[in-house]
Amino acid sequence: MTKKAMAHTDGPTIVFDKNAKSDTKIQEIVREFLADVPTLETKHNMPVVVFQDGVNNSYYIKCNALAQEAAELFDLDARIEVTSPESFRSNRNLLLNSNTYAKMRQDAGKGREFNDIIVEYNKTYNPSKPLKVWGGQHRSHAIAEAKNENNRHHGFRVFFNLNKEQRTEVALTSNTNIAVSNDTFDRMIEETVFGDKLRKWCQSVGFLGPQVDFPDVGSTAERITVKKARSFIVNFYLGKEKGKNLKDDELDKNVYDPYLTETGTSVDAEYKKVMDSRDINTDKG
What are the residue boundaries of the structural domains of the chain, listed by start? Predict the structure, then answer.
């Protein structure tokens, strides 16, 4: 069951699902999307239902678009912080040489229709590519490569007006089927809660090179991870505090177990305590 339809003289009727709170701003953004992006629903003047996620309250619709039209609008460089070019990117590690992708690309060329590709409609950056792809990056790439071989409809879940926390959760839940690594998970949560403070600190002290980010999934690069950087910072301040109560000759007489920060759906408590109480980029220690 859906709520009362919001009629409009131009384009499809927009209907809010019974579990979605009616929102005029969302309605207008959805209507803008339908005007910008050619969809099967618009072509046949079919009602478009707006859903609202029960966990993070994000709004989305389900729709279909032809390969040739959708591919021109894909942004495969989506980022969590829309105002920062250095923000976490959604798919820096596409496995285009894998056999799985080769099969996917072949299927797209033969006319396979892919469904539930997760995108965010966002024109804040790179406005000519408003479909920021968060889930189904490999399928989207295959669709784009095969668009001139077989122009079939593909299914999309399109999110609207996301804040940074919602965007992070969409990115995480959209990729659980490929087992997001702990390092990637840590990096996304870090940026959502604290922005780029940790990355800038690591760059300033030499743990990361200039303009270099934390390693990605499966990376073999000898770069510090978010977990290790967090642990280093926590241990520095724990050690500094403990040192206040030690005599000069006591330091080398004891064995100290390092504190390792935890990976999870929330930030490690000790690390959060440090970050909430000081600015690591200006603190002289």
Answer: 2-178, 187-277
